[in-house]
Each structure stands twice: as C-alpha cells, then as structure tokens.
Amino acid sequence: MVFREKAKILDEEGIKRALLRITHEILEKNKVASELGIVGIRTRGAHLAQRIAKLIDEIERVIIPLGILDITLYRDDLTLLSTQPIVHKTEIDFDITGKKIILVDDVLFTGRTVRCALDALIDFGRPKIIQLAVLIDRGHRELPIRADYVGKNVPTSLKENINVKLKEVDGIDEVVIEEKIDAQLET
Known about the structure:
By secondary structure, this protein is an alpha/beta fold. It has helices spanning 12-29, 44-60, 78-81, 112-122, 167-170, 183-186, and strands at 2-10, 36-41, 66-69, 100-108, 129-137, 149-153, 160-165, 174-181. Strands 3-2-4-5-6 form a five-stranded parallel sheet, sandwiched between helices. It has a three-stranded antiparallel sheet with strand order 1-8-7. Helix 1 crosses helix 2.
C-alpha cells in the first residue's frame, strides 16, 4: 500500500503535552506510584513507556520498573506477515505479580495488538491490574478493548493510516494522518 501525508496532528510539543497529561492521569488514578510497573509494546510503545517512566520519576521522585514487550509470536496474523518473522527480545526484569501494570502503545486501532500483549504479559505473572495507555486512539475496534489513558482521539477512515514518528526511531517527534493512494496514479 502507498500512503501520502494528509495532515500533521501532533508535533513534538503536542506529543510532550499528551504524554504529560497521560502521566498525570496515571498518577491520579493510581495513588501509590511505587505499586506501578510500566511495560511498552515494542517498538514505539517501548519508547513512549520510557518517556512516561521518566516523567513519573520527575514528578514523584519514584523510579518505576520498566519493561519492553515483544508480541511477535503472539500475533494472530503471524503467517501473513512473513515466513520468517523477526523476533526481538522481551525485557521484563521485574516481577509483575501483584503490580499495577501500565501497558503502553503508540496507536490503538483494532485491539489485536493489545490482545496479543495481554497474552504475552500474563506469561510473566499475574498483575493486580493492567491499564492501557496509548498516544493515539483511532477507533475501528475489532475486539472489546479500550484504553484507560489516551493522548488524542483521532477518528479515521479505513483508507487512512496513523504514522507515529519518534526521535528514538525516526529522528523526529510527530504524528501524521496518511491517506491511501492508488499506486498507479503515482507512476
């Protein structure tokens, strides 16, 4: 599929504000920050989780355990992606049992990625509660999953894509809506 940028919906400052708001909402809902653990879904969710953990430390002066979750082997479309998918390391170096886990991802769309992440996370223990934080919720759920913390709700059509770019991966912080274009028109 070929996509063309339609609109920028968040710039660097917009992402910072959204993450700060999410962080304050997490702290307000979970009164004791030391009970928390944060797990980001690889790739961009992991970087957003690191930013949220840093903000919690700046606000509460508490270092929250941080993990990175790779869901590749839990995907229900694994055979559609590749004959030899690339599996990255899951890095959860703390006991999640009894913790309040904040699961972080960049975009919530159908809910399938989050379902995979829940399955993967449960293999590491039994958290007291799992809450979901996403930078963007674009709708179009296929599963009964909702985010507890949302940076921005962006209603989209199925012909559109949300592209989250982060400095750690892409060299820039921005979120853009892209629209699908007919590849034949581009040639």
